[in-house]
Fold each of these.
Amino acid sequence: QVHLVESGGGLVQAGDSLRLSCAASGGSFSSFGMGWFRQAPGKEREFVATISRSGGSTSYDDSVKGRFTISRDNAKNTVYLQMNRLNPEDTAVYYCAANRFGAIRSSVSYNYWGQGTQVTVSS
């Protein structure tokens, strides 16, 4: 089993930046594709970004492309989400997830999930 713990969320102003971290324990971190997803109240959980096992390939939802950057440090068993130029529409609980079969956009494909970290962006 893999345990994931997100951190780095908080309350910021529009235009500010945040860097989320997801620390993994258990399993072999480098064997998992990793993803970030988010869920706002009353809405479905949605795809944000994914990164391949080695970190050589990334994918982003159109709503965050050019503003967010996903990265990973396999030596530290950690995946990051750098979020720049945040806007109120980015307000959500952000979840880190691991997929033993690779990086996939669909949330139902992921095997392990963290508890989430709240990101709130005020206008």
Amino acid sequence: QVQLLESGGGTVQAGGSLNLSCTIVKQSAGGHCMGWFRQAPGKEREGVAALIREKTAKYSESVEGRFTMSQSGSKRALTLRMNDLKHEDTAMYFCEAAENIRGYCSGSLKETDYSEWGQGTQVTVSS
């Protein structure tokens, strides 16, 4: 069982930047693969970024080049650095964890590959 806590959300103007954090409060035995997902009202939850290695991640096409995901050296904190924010980035953002059964992380952006998530943090981008 993994307990996650997101923070850093808020309201920013279009074109602005915002950094989100995810603290792994509790961590079960073994490693985990981590990702960031978001969900806007009336829309399906979508993958935004997923770690392959500590400072290497895979991104959705909609955020590629604007968002950067990384993990702390202690592996107890995640950061999502968001630049050039667009109105369509407005959503509740969640960090999610999957058990690293295979011993590596593929950078999956599929929601069904993850089993744990926090309560989320709201990001609102004004026009």
Amino acid sequence: QVQLLESGGGLVQAGGSLRLSCAASGRTFSRYAMGWFRRAPGKEREFVAAINWSGGNTYYADSVKGRSTISRDNAKNSVYLQMNSLKPEDTAVYYCAARLLDIATPAEEYDYWGQGTQVTVSS
């Protein structure tokens, strides 16, 4: 069982940056691949980024590639999403998720989810 808690969301102007954090409970965090997803108002949940158990493999959605960096610290049971050059279309609730084995992009492949953190980008 893994429990996830996101933090770091907020209101930022377009062009600004935010760093989202996700703290995980449990002793086996390093066994899990982690993903970030988001749900914008009136839209479906979409994949943002993922990182494998060691941090050696990452994958990004085209919409955030080059502007975002996912990373993890297994000693701190945490995963991060650094987002730069934020755009109004990045406004969404951001969720972190965990799954065993390797990274994946479909949300249904993830077993554990956090409650989400709101990111609002003003123009």
